[in-house]
Structures
1.
Amino acid sequence: MIRVATVIRLLAICMALLLAMPAAASTSDDALRDVAAWFAVDDKALDHWLPSAPGAADDRRILLQRKSAADGPLQRVMVIYPRKSTAYDVAMSTMLHDFAARQLNLEILAVNFARDPQRGASLIAEARREGYALVYAMGSETAEWLYQDHRDIDIPVVTVCAKDPVQLGQMPDYDRGSGNSFAFTSLNVLLDVQIGYLRELKPQLKNVAILVDEKNTSAVTTQARPIAEALQRQGIQALKVAVTNPAQAKEQLATLVPAAVDEMRRSDPALEQSVFWVTGSTSVFSEIATINAQSGKVPVLAVVPEVVQAGTDSAVLSIGVSFESNAQLAALYGVDILTGKSRPASMKVGVVSPPDIAINFLRAREIGLKIPFSFFEAATFVFDADGRPARIRGQTVSRQPGG
């Protein structure tokens, strides 16, 4: 017969376990809430990682530890953010998925240096002092700061969600490594590839209006200026449509886009050989509804595949590199470094090839644009004539009859 004391002891243990479970969840929720101003990941990423606030209260750092055990010695990774961006949310979620699938024994610290070089320097000192195995530079701003101020860092650095390092002068070309601790990846598609696709879409192309935030230095330097110069060399008019105040992008685009359409009509009265080209300027592509409303029948193309989405608030076509694809490549670079397979000094610039093509056939139908079949065959993301997902990440989306 079970003694009363034994039963009481078992009940106490069960009660303690029950109380501990919501406490852990609450701690994770609190940690995510504290950093919500700059950090977010999707719920599926959190299936494998337990977030917590490391050490003293600090709303600019969050620790992510594996929920399940992994082989090998623990390796610590620091991911340095400059600010909040939905692009960074996608990139971080993607890397967490990738690292979880590879069973690496990692502990990941995400930190926001808030574009403060002094704070950034203290984070680099911490990474050195605490023996971090790898640093990720999240975004072009972080990559530029790290490369300019800490090029002599002795910890491997991989860039993620950052624009082309060759166009930015951080690398001489695409054919060799950096010769130092940096391994670069690129959000950009090579120029000749982009223009090749444009020529296939519009063989008699006359006008390309390039939409950019002029305060976004990396977008101007790596996306707007290079393609404008390349188009002009081929006799195609490149119109600069530049937002001067990101906070007023909606209002400015409502005026700038119709003005660009009027300019296009001078050489292309029917607007059949003209396109808008939206760069990776967040303040610009976030206003895709405004751009569409003012562009009439002129196709709106984007270098960011995520701007092609369900419904009508979407670019009609994108030829670019998705944040997810770039992050997958950056994760692979990190894995190769952590496992000793590669050294950053010898790693060539990571370029996604072929590019991610995204198509919205609802928008194509609305403006009367014919999409080459080869684009459809190669597309990673497709939205059908009703604007519904038909292919996502290369996989056909199944739909119930009548759904």
Note: The chain has twelve helices and 18 strands.
2.
Amino acid sequence: MGTTITPDFYGDVGSEMLKKPDNSGYYLIGGFGYAELIEIDNDINIVGYQWMDPDNDYHGHLGVRWLSDGNIIIASQANQEVPGAFYDLRVRLCDTELVAYKDTVIFEDGKNRLPIHSGLDFIDENNIWVVTDAQEGKSEYGKIYIFDAGLNVKGAKYFGGFVPKYLYSIKALPDGGCIITGTTPKDGKNGEKSDKNVYIKKVMPFDILTHAEETLDEDDCDVLLYPVPFDRELKIETYRENLSFSMFSVSGECVVLRQQLTIPNTSIKTPNIGKGAYFYSIYDNGQIIQSGKIIKN
């Protein structure tokens, strides 16, 4: 028993299926282009179909869950329909008519996309977990957010380390944490032909809301510097307040000093800095919380 949907429906990737509250069937919500909602009964017959908010694009993979009040939360990507957006993370609260009444867009560089299977989950509506995949050309770090019930970002942190992670899904747990799954290449390199290891990570709210230097996780990071190597511009991303940044040449000369980083993005123009290796430090109230070497081409 089954149904083939063609040619009246657009194909999609990264769709979500929700069980209807009255147990009479399911909603299949797809996000390839303008999102579609397909209503299916328990015998897998199509009994309804509609565009979701046709004036707005739910581009890319979706994360969708019921809220306790009967409304729906949807995580997706914002694109041309939002001024200034380019594949940015978008989280919306929608009523039973699928019209958004709360809309939050996280403006960041790069394509901030959800994993292919599910990038949103929660048990406690004041701790809504959202995970986004590593951004090609920007970093090998995935990113984990915690939103409150009003879609305010309570915390966000990068997870990755020196080996690329390709994230597939997130699952909220009764103890308040979540499990993230994905793969990582055995040889530590990108590429379709690389052999893969399974990647499974458990994260608690403490891991996100606590400063990276105070956790035991070697792969978490509060501040992301990119591109690496850099050329005419160095960018810094963080959700942590009151941080400062300095960069020194190998001879000890300070070539960049930024007293306060902007949340979430700081851009530092570097056309007059010579090629070579530099040492950077990031400070919180004068204490170094992150440091390393970075190369300018």
Note: The radius of gyration is 21 Å.
3.
Amino acid sequence: MRVLPSPTGRRGASTEYCPAYTEGGPLPEAPPSTVTDAATNVAWNRYLWKSVEERALQEEARDANAAEAAHAAVWEATIKEISAGVCVGARTSCGCGDSACDCLEGWRGMTPEELYSHPWIVGDHGGGEHTVRAKRRFGRVQKNGIRAIDDGTENGENPAFGSRSKLSLISSDAPARVCRQYQRERRRRGQTLVAFEYGLEDVRKAFRRCPVAWPGFSVVFVWDPKRRRTAAFILPGFAFGVFSAVLAWNRYPALICHVMRRLLATATVAYYDDFGVGGAAFERGSGQRALIVVGDALGLGWAEDKHVAMTQSGPDLHPLGVMHDFSSVPNTGVVLIGVTEERKTKVAELIDEHIARGRLTKSDGATVFGKSRFVFSPVFGRFGLAALAPLSGLRGTTSLVEGEPLFEALLLLRRLVVSTRPQHFRVDEPQKSVVVALTDASEGEGGYTGIGVVLWDPEDNTLHYAGDEAPALLTAFFAWLREKANYIFEWELVAALCLYLTFPDKLQNKILHHFIDNEGAKFSLIRGFSGAPGGERVIHAAAAEIVSLGCHPWFGRVASKDNISDGPSRRGPHGGIDDRELRRLGGIERRLVLPTLAQLSRASDSFNQVD
């Protein structure tokens, strides 16, 4: 069955489902000569050999117990890689008398002399110390333990790497989109919806299994806590911690997806080293078995503990941290999609950790970006995508200062992540209907500030509206954040927020055309950021409401004279709001729901309400 387009390098449908390469990759920040010059490499290797020992001793002096645990974990991970065939060290006797022993004590690192005379380093080109550019291997604390990282930035390799290509990756709702494409093909053939299953596979140590042409760039120096000295190892594949590994490895999943679709007619997608296979229940998992065979033929090495057999639903069916439930597809044509609570917690804790530290490195930013982008799949709406922009252009270490774009982006991401709710993804009909809304705020005589909201629902052709006077407490709150001549910008944003608070039943899972007559408010909502502290608070609250509703807003400009929400934002001739025109049009009034102070406040605020 022809289900998915094959990756061909073209933009469009092919890049939606499979790792592909498009133009526009990052160019090198430093010339290649910084890592290829012979004299520089010799000096660097000798410096790093001593530095690994010096840093280990400094860490022990600061906290002996923590350093001992970290050094032991990194060493054990390195020796286990030797046993797995993705790292090369030196054999030693463990004292057990078994020449085939594979225990941890049976391996050690190489000395400089052993390293520089190794056949992989010498090769047939007269290699030696000058052809080696070693990396420091260190441990990074994660929730499930300490992970070994090879620093490709410190040794200059990452800054010297560049490419005209960049990856185009699938979104986390790709399994549901595979199901929809599969069912549409059946519809095209005059067949009914069928029970759909999905399975998951993961490649173990993926980067390590991608061979390198120059092993001298894959040498790591690590502290040996048993012999208390620096040790050297050679990685026959890419290190975890170099930018070049990403593009190099993703040629494998691109090839596999191509083979699976074109030759084996199997719906297969991949995200780095995570593979997914979809198919009808009557196929009885044949597509997943075919993927395993193809991967084995390439020598990938599947992670057995990550294997999830083809199923319609289950606690383990959450590719990329997003739960998928296909069990209702035959009866309702709906796939239930939601971000797992575990994923929400991980992202929130990660952001809290960085905010508490008060700084963010380029690597940290990439991690937060990668974990957060799953939340902003099309099925959840892309309202918060602009908030990821400050994370993508980091250089070095950046301080986190409240009010600055990076700090505010992290807070917004955290709020959006915890606000996501499960969504219904339909596989056999248009996803969402369209609703039109206009919002406005006005300042009148006597200090009167009003808010107006109008909504038209074309499904039942009804017009709804709401309006009220802005509470003085919120004005005081905005003034406490920053004193200014007027707060019309903040109130325009509040009016936009009130739309989602007042009409949640009308906006749930809908596409919304939201018109505003204030350019500053419109662009702040689009960007997800505002330089005004009060505006920032309102935008964060609006983003949380939009994500929780599963609403897909499109923000546009309306001329003030054409904005029919202006009426309910103003005081009527006999008190109340001016809704004469809306009542004449058959509008239905609803009580305006205003944001609470709690929705706009942060834990660090010291604002006190004065009665």
Note: The CA atoms of residues 23 and 269 lie 21 Å apart.
4.
Amino acid sequence: MIKKKKKKLIIALTVAGMIVAGTSIYVVSNQKQQESNLVQDAPQVNKVSDLMSSSTSKGESYLTGKVAPNATSKLNADSAKGKINEVFVKVGDKVTKGQKLFSYSNPDGQIAMEEAETDRTKLQNKLNQLNESIATKRTQLTKKTDELTALTNKVNNATTEEKESLNQEKKSLEETVELGKNEIETAKSELSDAKLDLQKAERTQQLTNEKYGRSEIVSDVDGIIQKIDDTQINSTVSTGSQPESFMEIMDTSVLRVLGKVDEFQKGEIAVDQPVKLIDRKDQSKTWRGKIARVDATATEEKEESTISKYPFEVVMENGEEMPNIGNHVYIQPEKEENAKVSLPTDYIMNEKDKKFVWKVIKGQVVKQEVTLGKSNEEAKTIEVNAGLTKEDTIVFPTKLIKEGMKVPIHD
């Protein structure tokens, strides 16, 4: 009898414990469900500009390109200048415009330039002497002319007996004056010929110096030495042959980025459009540039390709720590600041052939009609041509959102 009572007591206690435990689980579970419902039912309030930034980053795709030099400057060995006898740089060196690169040795050319200089100097001296001679003769002529004028006055005032002697003296002086004039005219003719001869000599010297001169060759650009053909040093180029360039310099005064854009993205870039360039290995390194060229003709791709691609080119702005030539970078076209408002399509509602969104005005939800534009199916966004600005705040539409309800606004 006692054993039966103990057994009933144990069963009663067990059932009571289960009831208490079940009640606790229900209370905790119900509390969590209520908290979950509160979170889910909270209105999603967002500023239009924030939604635009978010949707843009989701639908954004980078172009890619390869960093290239502005151009490659090729220097050929000129046998007319002689043999290349000394090189002042090596492959990989950075050079600046005007820096010495290499020099020629040409004894025959040196002699030709010296002879041309000697000929020019002789003719210049002759010209100087003629000018001095003409100046001296003019001075002498002026003196004799003054003497003739004075003697003529004396003859006019002389007696008959004196005139005979004075006239003979006057005749001799007139002959001297006439001779002086003739000598000056002859000298002037010689001077004119000498000027022509000097001009010819100067032209000959110029051509000779262009042919044999400038024994030291300097760089015309800022860049990097890419190639030096050592086999052309101290060697003679045979007539009629066209060897490869002796030296090549990558012009790094301006860096360019070469890439290709497919037919779907081609409309997103245009000449003079600013772009952001991002290092593929270290995306904290960025540069700026502008689209310089977008080809209108697609390049030939592999036969199995079904997408056309168009070459384009970006000119980089010079700055510190520019990327190495040959590196690949991401290219992000920059959007205009006055770009149209665009929203995720989930925020747009339909009602009687009209489109509207839930807009927040002074903390309350109101129905705002909007006019829509183009849609971007990839990014799942649509342009809003009228009815909203970037500064407006809107609410994500759910069944719980009602016109006039109050919502919290976050700055």
Note: Residues 1-5, 19-40 have pLDDT under 50 and may be disordered.
